[in-house]
Amino acid sequence: MEQLILAILSGGAVGFTLGLIGGGGSILATPLMLYVVGLAPHRAIGTGALAVSVNAFVNFAGHARKRNVRWRSAIIFAILGIVGALAGSTLGKQFDGKKLLFLFAILMIAVGILMLRRRAPAGGSGAEAVDEGSLDLRTSLQVCVAALIVGALSGFFGIGGGFLIVPGLLFSTGMPMIFAIGSSLLSVGTFGLTTAVNYAASGLVSWVVAAEFIAGGVAGGLIGTRVAMTLAPRRAALNRVFAGLVFVVAIYMLYRNAASFGMQF
């Protein structure tokens, strides 16, 4: 019963964050699975990847209904990224769990820094957008390279990788920010599902915990979205608060897992 409550509350926290500030929440899925729910390192990564995947597909459906998806770029990125995610997750399973978590903490710090940077306006990327129908060979190759790299990182760390996919789509296609966000969710869901299936093949997914986490995430997302509408003028401040939380969790993970690299604090 205790694990049930903790899994639902943890999922609710991630969903609330995603609804409130529009991203970054999934980076907390693995630490919550690990330190709150109490799963082992690799099982936390595999289970978190599944939960992130389902939540991403739910959000993707909403963006698709609003026509915020550049389908050709989204599909190319998702399909090529599967190859990278499969390779990355296979390598991640073979990596020492504590060393993997230490590197994950470093990635979290990078995410926190990115969140502190000023975001581009939702209406554009600051570059001339490539029209969906004019996706030429060069642009397609750029999308493919970005997809393989981001997919590999996503699979290795068991994360959705939206914070990497969005800039990957922006820089490879020049599409407006709102389309990059909408299109990225197809890849977030696909990469997470690929990682989860790979981990599940090794028995490293807790299905019941994942279901509880997802249920909490859906409820938390609905609440977070409503609160976001009220606190919209303070979105930048909310981003800074969340980045601070990410830094605190990352430092704690570095402290807990530093011994795996022979470091003592």
UniProtKB/TrEMBL annotation:
A Pfam family it matches: TauE
UniProt GO cellular component terms: plasma membrane
Membrane spanning residue stretches: 6-37, 44-63, 69-88, 100-120, 140-166, 178-201, 207-225, 237-255
Annotated membrane topology: Multi-pass membrane protein
UniProt-annotated location(s): Cell membrane; Membrane
Alphabetically ordered keywords of this record: Cell membrane, Membrane, Transmembrane, Transmembrane helix
Protein family (similarity comment): Belongs to the 4-toluene sulfonate uptake permease (TSUP) (TC 2.A.102) family.
Name of the featured protein: Probable membrane transporter protein
